[in-house]
Predict the 3D structure of the following.
Amino acid sequence: HWGYGKENGPSVWHKNYPVAQGNRQSPIDIIPQQASHDSSLGPIVLNYDQCTSINIANNGHSVVVEFDDSDDRSVIRGGPLDNPYRLKQFHFHWGGKGCHGSEHTVAGISYASELHLVHWNAVKYKTFGEAAAAPDGLAVLGIFLDTGDDHRWLHMITDVLYMVKFKGSVTDFKGFNPKCLLPSSLHYWTYLGSLTTPPLHESVTWIVLKEPIIVSEKQLGKFRMLQFTGEEEDQRLRMENNFRPPQPLKGRKVRSSN
Ligand SMILES: CC(C)NC[C@H](O)COc1ccc(S(N)(=O)=O)cc1
Ligand SMILES: [Zn+2]
């Protein structure tokens, strides 16, 4: 099964997922000076006020917070999007002790970690699965995490990570509003890309915020006590470096909100 190790990591995903070598793969290295400033790009609007988180789980690749997406209670709209996209889940990618783990990079620089808020086009598609396979099916908001002081709200997540230490574990996680994880500015870069893990579907309109949020090394360290492996497996594999490196741009345009 795919993973982030030597034998099953990003360099061999193409064997089972040939789209890995496609023309709109993610992540990418974002070069700000080469991004085209597009004044027709409006602001992104996040309506998360009625959002309802359900649970937090360890899926063997990351830690994921799932939302009730049975109606349009929490959506992202505006920016490059033609209609509202429904929040389905968010998850993180991070590095090992002292090394960075963001997926997107900015002029070759990677951040300590990256948060992905995954939304799907429920106007055009009936299910997340159907949307995830469609070229305009998903919109993922990417937020960089840099290290510094404690993040005042991230402890809501890091305090419960011990409950989902092993692959396949899930626990209730209600009433969390991810609005508290946003930076002050919603200025962004946007481009057409893909899921950054198998099945690597080329179905994502990426919206990557320019301003990182700041979290402490201590908070990040709690992500690294998660395990890729299940409780019953004998080998312990610390969950870290669960990021795909940047992929070829293949002539794509990256636009900048401003
Ligand atoms: C095809 C559907 C049904 N299953 C997809 C599976 O849940 C994986 O979904 C995802 C969702 C988001 C991402 S990322 N890192 O690009 O934000 C990667 C995989
Ligand atoms: Zn992701």
